[in-house]
Amino acid sequence: MNMVRLENTELLHLFWFLAGMAVLFFIAFSWKKRALKQYGDFNTVRATIDRLSFFRPKLKFFLLLVAIAFLVMAAVNPQVGSRLREAERKGIDLMLAVDVSRSMDATDIRPSRLDRSKRAISMLIDKLQGDRIGIIVFAGKAYTQLPITTDYSAAKMYLSTLNTGMVPTQGTSVAKAIDLAMHSFGENSQSKSIVIISDGESHDEDAIKKAKEASKMGITVHTIGMGLQQGVPIPIMQNGRRVGFKKDSDGNTVITKLNEKLLADVAEAGGGIYVRASNSQAGLETIFNEINEMEKKKYESRVYADYEDRFQYFLAVAIVLLILEQLLSNRRSKMAEKLRFFSEKGGEK
Questions:
Q1: Which candidate, 210, 139, 135, 208, places its Cα nearest to that of 172?
Q2: How far is it, in rounded angstroms, from Cα 153 to Cα 130?
Q3: How far apart are CA 147 and CA 298, in angstroms?
Q4: Which of 147, 206, 220, 230 has the fewest CB neighbours in a 10 Å radius?
Q5: Residues 139, 171: contact at Cβ < 8 Å?
Q6: pLDDT tens digits along 65-76
Q7: Around Cβ 203, how many Cβ atoms within 10 Å?
Q8: For residues 127 and 151, what is the distance between their CA atoms, to the nearest angstrom?
Q9: Does 343 have pLDDT greater than 70?
Q10: Spatial distance between the Cα atoms of 34 and 165, rounded to a whole number of angstroms
Q11: By CB neighbour count within 10 A (0-12 exposed, 13-18 middle, 19+ buried), where does 319 fall?
Q12: What is the Cα gyration radius of the chain?
């Protein structure tokens, strides 16, 4: 059974404009006839004017009005649905846990550990096809920045807001990030992965336990180490500019180093892989290729109708009517006068 829908229904209000045109035309036409009658008998006056026609202007206006009506319908674009099809959406669920502790401002990975992470995530989002993504931020505590979604534009918007001042409790609690991510997927049979992006600068033994727990639930935990092992000072930023370096209580400059062992152990416990970022690559592409090998399961099924546009038919009729309207003269033709198609009594009024 064919289904019909109108794509731009709001344009149907233009028919009120056409009705107004018709009313104004017949008011003006009646006024013209009354004006001619002031000069004497109507038939006598009409006979004195060479080939005056009252029917042709009406016909021209009718053709114009119908042509405009067909143009409006072309703009409304009636569509015919000929068949139904079922569309399935398949993919994986991916939770990105991004470290936003102060140490992520370090510049051993340029322009900074966090900025490099954000750029890599943005490139990852561009490669997603049907996968769902969520973002968690963590330092001493973990918070959901973006719930799991297929809205990649929203993901990029939330990604752009990440900064090292958004979590007041400092530290690097990888365990809390994994725990929150585990409970952020929802109930479905989707293939699930957690990607921890951090410098791992903590001695969070609970992180390994949480990674094992996630693995038992069928969730793979990958890790990316942001930073270099030799370490660098932690900059103090104000209004986007460095104003000094962080110091301890004794006045010594604090050095932040990549805790590669912790991140590697977490990835191993979570059944995933560990990648160290560098100034040439951030590691997400390697992990994405690994994730892409996972089985993509159906998580949504919708029924769609295939609709085909029909505006072209209305447009064609409108063009034909406009051409006829232009070819038709307002006055009676000389040929019609000679052949006398219309009698004086029953002819044009």
A1: 139
A2: 13
A3: 19
A4: 230
A5: yes
A6: 999 999 999 999
A7: 10
A8: 13
A9: no
A10: 82
A11: middle
A12: 37
β 142-149/191-198 pair status: unpaired
Domain ranges of the chain: 3-77+310-339, 93-302
Beta bridge partners of 223: 196, 274
What is the Cα–Cα distance from 32 to 51, expressed in whole angstroms?
16
The dihedral through the CA atoms of 47, 48, 50, 54 has a sign that is negative
CATH superfamily name and code, 93-302: von Willebrand factor, type A domain (3.40.50.410)
How large is the angle between the packed helices 55-76 and 14-37, nearest 10 degrees?
170
Of the listed ranges 144-153, 203-212, 233-242, the least confidently predicted one is: 233-242
Strand 78-99 and strand 191-198: pairing? parallel
Positive/negative CA dihedral, 234, 235, 238, 244 = positive
β partners of residue 146? 135
Q: Which residues contact 271 (CB under 8 A, 6 or more apart)?
A: 215, 220, 221
End-to-end alpha carbon distance in the chain: 48
Contact, 140 vs 134, CB < 8 A? no
Rounded Cα distance between 340 and 126, Å, is: 75
- What mean pLDDT is reported for the chain? 82
